[in-house]
Amino acid sequence: MVFNKENVDYSLYLVTDSSMLPDGTTLYSQVKAGLENGVTLVQLREKDIETKDFIREAVEVQKLCQSFNVPLIINDRIDVALAIGADGVHVGQDDMPIPMVRKLVGPDMIIGWSVGFRHEVETLAEWGPDMVDYIGVGTIFPTLTKKNPKKAPMGPQGAIEVLNALEDNKAHWCRTVAIGGLHPVNIERVLYQCVSSNGQRALDGISVVSDIMAAPDAAAATKNLRHLLDNPSYKFVNLGLKSETVSSETYREVVGQVTRNRPLVQHMTNKVHQNFGANVTLAVGSSPIMSEVKEEVHELARIPHAALLLNTGSVAPLDVLREAITAYNKEKRPIVFDPVGYSATEARRLLNDTLLSHGQFTCIKGNTSEILSLAKLTTEKMKGVDAFTGQLDKVMVAQATRVVAYTYKTVAVCTGEYDFVADGTFGGRYYLSCGLGISAKDIPCVAIHNGSIPIMGDITASGCSLGSTIACCVGGVAPESNLFDAVVTAVVLYKTAGKLASTRCQGNGSFNVQLLDALYQLFHENCPATWSTSLERLS
Ligand SMILES: Nc1ncnc2c1ncn2[C@@H]1O[C@H](COP(=O)(O)OP(=O)(O)OP(=O)(O)O)[C@@H](O)[C@H]1O
Ligand SMILES: Cc1ncsc1CCO
Ligand SMILES: [Mg+2]
């Protein structure tokens, strides 16, 4: 055995599949191209093959791996691994129990295990450091290589749960590779999002099958994957430089850019909100388009300064919503996500979770019920789309906002008498293995307040329209601007407009009209009448 198990590089783990080789290539030639261009670990996986042929192939691949100083792992066949003296074995949940595998292969061989759930991590932790060396965390996304998947795809949030379980159970020895449906379009996002909540652990690597095995040019494909791992900065949208203080200068700058650039804000939103949202968008100097048409999302996303408001209050078909997320992520244009009624019903939770795992969001905005349940700080069901009505602890709501920002690596907004805005974007940086170092409770968060304005909660879709306003601001600012500043500006101006409107209205009918007028005034005159809205930086 040439390898010290502690020093294995898990960053780019190639799992073979000889059923998908393009014409003119062989398993050997594809693995070789991978090794020449940055694959750090190889797993031989052959499902329908005679033992004699498997051994012959394994010996050939083993020689190849040895010449690159890369460990070879054998899938499932412990006998084959022992027979050829492979560097490790990988087993699934339905294969031989791990303690028996360890007994057979001895202390030095690498053992990998497929893991998808917290309880499996707990078992592994109980066994201690001498059993499992690494886990394949998955399946992350749907994949064609698993014909009959037993588990639903877990998404990045499921992988975060597994990382959290490793931290909670102090399984520090155990390395992790994400597996399942990982491709260049989503790898950066997965690496960026998948950090344990304490900030101490990120994925150690990713595992790919088809991107190399089925590639007509496996060398170029591997180089491309290697590039994503070696340049860990996810430019999902322009993140800009963080300004040290958000001030009325910042607000004026953002408003000036929005009204000059007049962003097109595509709304996929509920029927209740559509008309008011379009008027709010116009009031803040932007152009609304209400469209739920799959065929045009890509074209719209390519328009300079386009932004998407995705509000799940009443919904377009799932495939339309997913295509929209794909389009705006591809064009690196911002998406504001409003998970309306997130915990009202199981169906809503599932729909929102499905969408949240499908892409990267610039901002996630919700009311107190939505944010507390997204942060898993309450299990109480929402009453429809209403905000939480009980007594709320400011510290807890701020923490929930931070957890949501951190988990989804986004700017999170929680509305109410106090609006909280937390920045979990980390400038798009990500790290393999070691995490970000800081946890959710340490990320920047501000509280925005202008006294109690209960009438703001007494008109329908006022939260949804804050979503429109945020989308206008993140869409309208120049590429070098900071998104957190743009979101904070939207929230501050919206609160200011609410305050002005509340002093000018006679009831919730005229409040609607006054809110539009006040927004119009603030954005068009860009000389805010009253900056009584306060912004407090939380420690
Ligand atoms: N008591 C309050 N005092 C001050 N501002 C409030 C108050 N309640 C709500 N707001 C403001 O009203 C807007 C909507 O917040 P709310 O939490 O009611 O959203 P929501 O429940 O998502 O609304 P909807 O679902 O009707 O669109 C936010 O801008 C928020 O700051
Ligand atoms: C009332 C209502 N129902 C679904 S969405 C919506 C708008 C406020 O969220
Ligand atoms: Mg809402």
UniProtKB/TrEMBL annotation:
GO molecular function ontology, one term from the record: ATP binding
Coiled coil: none
Known pathway: Cofactor biosynthesis; thiamine diphosphate biosynthesis; 4-methyl-5-(2-phosphoethyl)-thiazole from 5-(2-hydroxyethyl)-4-methylthiazole: step 1/1; Cofactor biosynthesis; thiamine diphosphate biosynthesis; thiamine phosphate from 4-amino-2-methyl-5-diphosphomethylpyrimidine and 4-methyl-5-(2-phosphoethyl)-thiazole: step 1/1
Highest taxon in the source lineage: Eukaryota
Assigned keywords, A-Z: ATP-binding, Kinase, Magnesium, Metal-binding, Nucleotide-binding, Thiamine biosynthesis, Transferase
Residue span(s) of domain Thiamine phosphate synthase/TenI: 12-212
Pfam families: HK (PF02110), TMP-TENI (PF02581)
InterPro entries found in the cross-reference section: Aldolase_TIM, Hyethyz_kinase, Ribokinase-like, ThiamineP_synth_sf, ThiamineP_synth_TenI, TMP_synthase
Cofactor requirements of the protein: Mg(2+)
Catalytic reaction list: 4-methyl-5-(2-phosphooxyethyl)-thiazole + 4-amino-2-methyl-5-(diphosphooxymethyl)pyrimidine + H(+) = thiamine phosphate + diphosphate; 2-(2-carboxy-4-methylthiazol-5-yl)ethyl phosphate + 4-amino-2-methyl-5-(diphosphooxymethyl)pyrimidine + 2 H(+) = thiamine phosphate + CO2 + diphosphate; 2-[(2R,5Z)-2-carboxy-4-methylthiazol-5(2H)-ylidene]ethyl phosphate + 4-amino-2-methyl-5-(diphosphooxymethyl)pyrimidine + 2 H(+) = thiamine phosphate + CO2 + diphosphate; 5-(2-hydroxyethyl)-4-methylthiazole + ATP = 4-methyl-5-(2-phosphooxyethyl)-thiazole + ADP + H(+)
Any single GO BP term: thiamine diphosphate biosynthetic process
Protein task: Condenses 4-methyl-5-(beta-hydroxyethyl)thiazole monophosphate (THZ-P) and 2-methyl-4-amino-5-hydroxymethyl pyrimidine pyrophosphate (HMP-PP) to form thiamine monophosphate (TMP).
Family from the record: In the C-terminal section; belongs to the Thz kinase family.
Protein name (database record): Thiamine phosphate synthase/TenI domain-containing protein
